[in-house]
Amino acid sequence: MISQVLGAVVRHKVLIEGRSERSVALELGVSRNTVRKYRELSEPRRVVLAPRRRMVLERVAPRMEELLEDWSRRTTRKQRITGSRLHSQLVSEGLEVGITSALGEADV
User: Fold this and answer.
1) Where are the strands (E) in the chain, listed by range?
2) pTM of the model
3) What gap in Å lies between CA 39 and CA 16, rounded to an integer?
4) What is the 3-state secondary structure (H, E, C) of 96-107?
5) What does the pLDDT look like over 26-75, one tens digit per residue?
6) Distance CA 58, CA 24 (A)
């Protein structure tokens, strides 16, 4: 397999400099088929993944927002609820949530 850098070099020599596929293949020591393949690729392929659903967070987010809102009215900004306290409150209410889900939302 050809490296990504070499693929960029091939595309530059053929598409920008206007050199023939054959001369580029001879210079770089790769097959003309390889040069053709990378010439046809205008940009390197990138796989774009759709964001995963955060099912647990979707289930407990409304209650977390209520707790954060409640604590914001009761205390000053420096005394707001911590992520650990938020997690223990959610667990005591019977919600199954991991510590990292609670910590990530407490900073909001």
Assistant:
1) none
2) 0.48
3) 11
4) CCCHHHHHHHHC
5) 999 999 998 888 888 766 566 788 888 888 888 888 998 998 888 888 77
6) 54
CA distance 97 to 88: 10
- What are the φ/ψ torsions at residue 27 (nearest 5 degrees)? -65, -40
Nearest to 80 by CA among 89, 90, 70: 70
Percent of the chain with pLDDT over 90: 19
Residue that has been written with the tokens 């693929």 in this structure: 7
Let me know: does 59 contact 77? Beta carbons within 8 Å: no
- Distances in whole angstroms, Cα of residue 87 to Cα of each of 18, 65, 75, 81, 93: 62, 13, 18, 10, 10
Which pair of tokens denotes residue 4? 């990504």
d(CA 4, CA 1): 9
